[in-house]
Prior knowledge:
By secondary structure, this protein is mainly beta. The protein has helices spanning 17-20, 73-82, 176-182, and strands spanning 5-10, 25-30, 38-47, 53-72, 87-91, 97-99, 101-112, 115-125, 130-132, 139-141, 154-156, 189-192, 196-199, 203-204, 210-213, 220-223, 231-248, 251-253, 261-274, 277-279, 284-289, 302-303, 306-308, 311-313, 324-329, 331-332, 335-337, 340-343, 352-356, 361-362, 365-367, 370-373, 386-388, 396-398. A hairpin with a 5-residue loop joins strand 3 (38-47) and strand 4 (53-72). The two termini are 21 Å apart.
Amino acid sequence: MNKYLKFEYWNTCDLGNIYYQGGQHFIFYLDADVGEPIHEEVEEGQENGDGDFIPTYRRQMKRYRIRTGLIPDYLIDAIQRMKLHDNIELTFKSGEVEQIYNVDCEAEWQFEKYAWQGTVTLTFDMDESITVGACCDNLVVQTGGGEPEPDDRYWVAETGSDVSGDGTYANPWATLAYAATQATTPGDVIHVKAGTYNETQRINVAKGVSLVGDSTNIPKIISTYRDASYYAVWLADETVQDGNQSISYLHFDGSNYTAYGAIMILRRNNVDIHHCTISYFELWGVRFLVPNSVGAVSPTRASGNKFRHNTVINSAGYGANGYGGCGMDGQEDFYIGYNDFIQKNTPGLNGMPIKCVNGIIRNGKIEHNNIYMNPFTSSEHWDFAIELWDCRGGVEIAYNYC
C-alpha cells in the first residue's frame, strides 16, 4: 500500500515550451485521499448575435475531488501548471493507476512558520477512457475488440493454459516462463493480461522480445524462483548483444524475500525497463551487468540501457559489497530516471537503492529519482542512497530527492 497519492504529469506537445515544458516529466506526492465522486451540471450552448448565452442542453458530469492542507507555495505553483500537460496520471494509495483530466486547482493561502502555506483543492475527471495522440492530434477513444497487431499475437492470462493454450488473445498461456520459451523471435511481444501470476521457474527472455502488462490494471508476477542465478527474469548473453526490447507495466514481487532478485540484464544493450513495480526481493531489484570490467582501461561495456518511471520497494540486500535496488555495472550511455526507491524493511541490513559495484560506468544520467531509506544502526556499514564505484567520466547526477 502506498502512503501517498502520486501525481505524474508530462506532455507530448513540443509547442510553446515556456508553458508546456516539453520533454520533462514531473512527479509530486500528496498525503490525502480522493473523495467520493461529485456530480456537476454543465450547461452547453452558444452566444447569439447580441452577446447573450443561449443554452441548448444540460449534462451531468461526475467529478472527483482531493483536498490537501498546508503545502508550500512552490508546490502549489507546480500543481497549477499541471493542467497545462496532456498526460496526467494518478497512482492511488492502493497502487491503482488512472489517467485524469480537466483538472482545476483552487488554493487558499495563509502565513505559517515564516512562509506562505496553502490549502489546495483539486477537482478532476477520470471516468472516461480517452487518450491524446501525438501533438495537436484529435482525441482517440480507446475501444476493445478487433484483431491484434502482428507483434501482439502472444498473450498470457490467469485463465490461460500452458498445455492447451496457443498464445493467442482468445486462447492464452498461463505463465510468463512458458510464454518466453515460445516467443523467441526479435520483435515478439508477450502481453500479460491483468491478474496475479505465481511463477516458480526462471523467465528466460530472448533478445528482441518485450514483456508488456496492462497499463490500466498492472498484472502482479509473484516469483518464488531461488537458484544460483538469483534472478526471476533473465536476459543474458555470452557476449554483448543488442537487446532492443522493453519490460513495462508489470509488478514483480519476490514473495516476502523468497526470491533473490527480480531482473538481470547480462551483456545486453538497449533494454528499457519502465513503469514497473519491484517489491520484496532479498538481494537485487534490477541489475544491468557486464562483469569483470573493474579497473580495466577499455573493458567491453553494454550501452543504451534504461530504468525509468519504476517503483522499487525493499529489494536491496546487504553483503560483502552490498546489493542494490537498481545496479549499473559495465555500462555506458545509461539512464536511471524518475523512479521511486523505498528501502526500509529488508531483513538484515539494507543495501543501496542505486548501486554500481562491479564494473566501470561512464556517460550516463541519474536524475529525478525519489530515494527513501533508513539509516544503518551499525557503524561498520555504509548507508549510501547512491553508491558508484568506478565512474570514468560523463556521469550526471541531478535533481534526485534523497
